[in-house]
Each structure stands twice: as C-alpha cells, then as structure tokens.
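Note on ligand handling. Small-molecule inputs were canonicalized before submission; formal charges were left as drawn, and no protonation-state enumeration was performed. Where a ligand contained multiple stereocentres, the stereochemistry in the source SMILES was retained. For 2-oxoglutaric acid, this procedure yielded the string shown in the input block below.
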Amino acid sequence: MTSTPGPVPTIDLALADRADSWAATADRIDGACRTGLFLLTGHQIPTEATQTVYRHTRALFEADPAVRRATSRSRSFLGYRGAPDAGSAADHKETFTIGRDPHPGETAGEFTPPNMWPPLPEFQQTLTAHYTRLQAVAIRVGDLLTKALELPPGFLTGRPERHISWLTAINYPTGAHETAAPRTRFGPHRDRGTIALVSATGPGLEVQADDGSWRPVPLTDGALVVIIGSMLAGWTGRRWTAPRHRVGPAAPSETSPRQSLVFFFNPDPATRLEPLPGPGRPHPPPPFGPALTVGDYLRTMIDGYRNPARP
Ligand SMILES: O=C(O)CCC(=O)C(=O)O
Ligand SMILES: [Fe+2]
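Structure output:
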C-alpha cells in the first residue's frame, strides 16, 4: 500500500527519542515509513567526515585502472565494480563496497568475505571509520523503527554484533559517458534490504509517486536519506513501503561526477522474518514467515547484484 508523497518528511534523531513527544514522533515515523523515504537530521556525523570520505573515494575512482582492478569484485560482491562500456544501456556508475570483518571467533561466512582494499594512503582507515559511524546511526534508526511499531527492543535489529551491512561508494561519471540524450544515472529500483542510509555530493535522487511521476528528494545540508527496503516492507506485511527510486539525468550545469555513499543495513542473518507480534497487524505475504531468514533473503539479494534484474 502506498500513498502519494507530499514533501519528504524529516525526522530529527537528536529529538526523536524524547519521552514527552514520543507519541507524536512514532506517528511521524510510521507515516514516513508508509511512503518509505525520509530525511534524517541530528545524526551527528560531521559534514567534514563525510567530505573526507568523498575525497578518498574520488582518489580511488580517479586512480590508475590497475589500482581499481586490484580490488575488483569478480571474486566477491565486495570491492570495485566498473562502469559499463560507453554505449551500453546499463547504468553508467562505478561502485566500491565494503562489509564488516568477522569478529574474533566468528568464522568468515558467506556474508562476511574479506574486504578488498586499494593501495591508497589512509583509504582503509577512512572507509572503516565511516562504516562504524553509519552503523551506529543505522542501529539507532532501527531501534526507533522497532519502537514505532511497538515491538520489543531488538525485534527488528537482533544481535548488533551480528548485523550484516554494506557501505557502497558510487561514482556517476560525467563527460565521457554522456550521450546527446540525457540519461538516467541509476535506473528505477527498490532497495532489497532493510534500510539504506544515503548521502550524496549533488542532486539527482528521485522517488516515484503513485501517479508515476518522479519527485526530487531534496539534498538538505548534512541530512541522510533513509530508504525502506523490500525486506522490511514485506516483513511489516506491507504496512511500510519500499519506494521505487532512481538517480535522474545530470543537469547540463553538473560538470563534476556525482558521488554517493549508501549504507545498506541488515540484521543478524539468523533472524526469522516471522509475522510481527501484536493484534491487528497485516500478515506478511509469502515467502515471509518463520521459514525465511534474513540470511535467505540476503542470499537472494547477492545473487541479484551478480545478475541484476529490476523489481
Ligand atoms: O546514489 C544515490 O543517490 C542512490 C543510490 C541507490 O539508490 C542505491 O545504491 O540503491
Ligand atoms: Fe537504491
């Protein structure tokens, strides 16, 4: 179930948890998640920290191809994936993805393959630090969403040390790949996971309204965009929505590449996607239910990255 989005709602994380205003906040969060996308302020990630990450990812995207090949994700879904050849109909973007390392005593599993780091100064420390910052924000958002659904603490987020999240840096090149006709930079899709936290260096992100039109998501200073994914939407019995979104064509005035950082947050793979407890809740459609785990879902997602088909 979707409803036509009005202006994109904003949730202030610094104020969200206040007991005196919680009832109103829970309603706002629920309303925002029903359309599936909101801006998050008050997350306390300094703008300079994010800018530093962009400087390092820019260095990777501009590095000698041999540097990028060293982290090519042909062996894994982590690392670098290049833009398609000019003329291809696929999205003209390149990506670099990291995940978390296995904890001491935890065997490196299918969801925690080794990260691949380019030989660039301070790249690994910078990206790892940002992963840690975004993870902390994602856990707080996950806790808020759990509370807004009146679920027991941890129901949606599970054991924090077992979360499986990925941080993807995206570069949307300009110039060489531009053809006469402006083209969508990232085609229409729904995110498949739980929630994504997005920041970007420039405009372009758009969300689809019920009438099929595309609405720009405002780039408000320092705000993160929170996008609900299909896993969470299905788990809530579609009370919440995974919105279709895309990155539209670059404006002629945009002469430098657009970069974004997307943190895909997912709970413990052992978590069962069972119906949410409580009276009067919409029942999740099949295949959700005790037989489906977050891990099963992530496996399908990873196959989808290897072999993309847009929902
Ligand atoms: O680059 C962006 O702003 C959005 C990226 C996105 O939607 C995604 O990675 O799923
Ligand atoms: Fe997306």
